């Protein structure tokens, strides 16, 4: 554990410094004597645990937490022998409260070990949270954003566009006769084609554009920053061209094209539902007109 000790100059706290320096659980010990210095040290260093051993620790703790809402865990060492005060420190975010009277190496080590265990559990929870977030927002086959992520992003992008009076574009793609690929070569080949489509689209759009697989053989690109509609036209041309090279899947050369519908906000629609409908209808027109083309 990398530990930061904030302490005043008096005997009890000096012995805490010695105990920490001697502990096998402490890999680094940094010391300072003001909250201001501590805030700077936390910003510049990895600090796993902070011991606060200065006058009026509750006020200092509140000050620290107001600068570092998600800062390192804090343990208070104080001369106060008042359960109510200790409780208020815990309520304000301290992990533990040690009275100077109880200051001995075994108490400090127990404290460090408890924090270590809590951090382990906390990290596991954060990992699970990240996994759940990924499951909720990412399409597992292509690793593109999924429909849920798209719906959230579109609603958000529209409210920003309304506020800033910007334009948005939706490019809606539905692969042509994709079912034939499944029927002829099997579902697993179909899956690999979908992954290759996602990879080609990723190379075609910019980082700032949101590329999603809505489901099945449908993809959508949300463009939140449009400088001019000609750029969207060029992009859709590049998208159609991205399907020109044959798809080489397990040694088979497969031909595939896509029908594309484009809709812009606020010209075609006043909300996300209308905008999607508009792009869908444009795509449907492209299908009706013979596929492998872009319609607005
Ligand atoms: P059209 O040009 O008229 O759109 O023809 P299509 O064959 O692409 O149309 P349709 O929407 O009927 O076919 C889409 C196919 O996509 C049908 C479905 O079995 C397949 N599909 C949907 N999800 C997946 C998937 O995750 N993997 C694979 N391999 N196929 C999928």
Automatic annotation (TrEMBL):
Section covered of the full-length record: 1 to 296 of 573
Response regulatory domain: residues covered: 2-115
Domain GGDEF: 166-296
Protein name per the record: Response regulator receiver-modulated signal transduction diguanylate cyclase/phosphodiesterase
Gene Ontology MF terms in the entry: catalytic activity
Cofactor(s) required for function per UniProt: Mg(2+)
UniProt-listed GO biological process terms: phosphorelay signal transduction system
Highest taxon in the source lineage: Bacteria
Residues passing through the membrane, by range: none
């Amino acid at each position: 554990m990398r530990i930061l000790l904030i302490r005043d100059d008096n005997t009890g706290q000096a012995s805490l410094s010695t105990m920490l320096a001697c502990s096998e659980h402490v890999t680094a010990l940094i010391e300072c004597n003001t909250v201001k210095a501590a805030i700077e040290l936390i910003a510049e260093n990895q600090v796993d645990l902070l011991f606060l051993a200065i006058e009026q620790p509750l006020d200092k703790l509140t000050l620290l937490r107001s600068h570092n809402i998600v800062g390192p865990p804090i343990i208070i060492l104080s001369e106060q022998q008042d359960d109510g005060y200790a409780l208020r420190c815990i309520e304000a975010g301290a992990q533990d409260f040690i009275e100077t009277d109880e200051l001995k190496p075994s108490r400090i080590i127990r404290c460090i070990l408890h924090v270590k265990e809590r951090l382990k559990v906390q990290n596991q929870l954060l990992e699970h949270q990240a996994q759940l977030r990924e499951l909720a927002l990412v399409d597992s086959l292509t690793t593109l954003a999924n429909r849920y992520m798209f719906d959230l992003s579109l609603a958000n992008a529209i409210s920003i566009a309304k506020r800033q009076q910007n334009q948005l574009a939706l490019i809606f793609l539905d692969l042509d006769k994709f079912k034939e690929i499944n029927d002829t070569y099997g579902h697993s080949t179909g899956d690999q084609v979908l992954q290759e489509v996602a990879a080609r689209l990723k190379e075609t759009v910019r980082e700032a554009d949101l590329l999603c697989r809505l489901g099945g053989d449908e993809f959508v690109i949300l463009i939140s920053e449009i400088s001019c509609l000609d750029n969207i036209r060029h992009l859709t041309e590049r998208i159609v061209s991205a399907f020109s090279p044959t798809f080489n899947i397990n040694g088979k050369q497969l031909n595939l094209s896509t029908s594309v519908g484009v809709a812009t906000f606020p010209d075609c629609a006043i909300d996300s539902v209308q905008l999607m409908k508009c792009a869908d209808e444009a795509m449907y027109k492209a299908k009706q007109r013979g596929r492998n083309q872009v319609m607005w």
